[in-house]
Amino acid sequence: MLTNLRKIRQNALSSINEASSLQDVEKIRIFNLGRKGKLTEILKGIGRLKEEERRIVGKTANEIKKEIEDAISAKEKELKDKDIKREDIDITLPGRIPWIGRRHPITICADEICNIFTRIGYSLVEGPEIETEYYNFEALNIPEYHPARDVHDTFYLEDGRLLRTQTTNVEVRVMERGKPPLKIISWGKCYRRDSPDATHSPVFHQLEGFCVDRNVTFRQLKGTLIYFARQFFSRDIKTKFVPSYFPFTEPSAELYISCSVCRGKGCRVCKGTGFVEVLGCGMLHPNVFYNVGYDPKEYTGFAFGMGLERLVMLKYRIDDIRLFYENDMRFLNQFGP
User: CA–CA separation, 183 vs 188, rounded Å?
Assistant: First the structure.
């Protein structure tokens, strides 16, 4: 029986040494140490031996079993290490393309619009998102009783300040700090108490611009905005100005462009008119000048404001504003770097 044990040991160790895969090692383990393995069969027959032989054979069998188990463990570790090294240096595998982030479509369009205006002399400035009632309303000729100041439309903070409802607050702050001539644009987040749907969001982006100097006219305002529309949308786009009302401008107007979806023929987007509204504008109200210490008899100016989400939706024919905030990579990856 001792002779058989030595043969089992020799054959097992030799097979383990020659094994080239983890599957081969597992087969060797089962063949020798499994329930019906060679070594197991010998251990089952020990009970038929005399006491002295049983002691010697049992001790030898356990030692051989331990030696085979250790050899199997060492071989398994060796093969696993080889697999890891093989993965590290396998130059035949295809390369892994790293994920590259993309700019948000709102950021892309905001940068494009800012570039359009900086080419004609405008400077980019920033303003605070947490604002006082004075800069957000009063200085812009929005009186206390105006519905825009109601708690149902504005996010008020406990200290009496608020989340700005428009980027027009930048106008007053810039004019307070400097004297004309001024040509400024600013964009950023605004906040209003709107229920989210396909065209409304409580958080949105606006871009504001204004020009103040001597002898600034409505004609210059029209020329500036027509230039912008043709640069941003299309050179052959049609435009028209429709009278409107804003507390901080007089006279006021809205700029309409020919519908980018139907090309002016009439569709659901333009409600059959062939035109869609893209921004509000007008000549700065004299009361705004009084609030910043300007003499409206000496200076005139115009201002315009646009919702960035609306412009992006028109430019890329997007029909739901909520897509901008859902972080769906399938949507965002469609836009430029």
Answer: 18
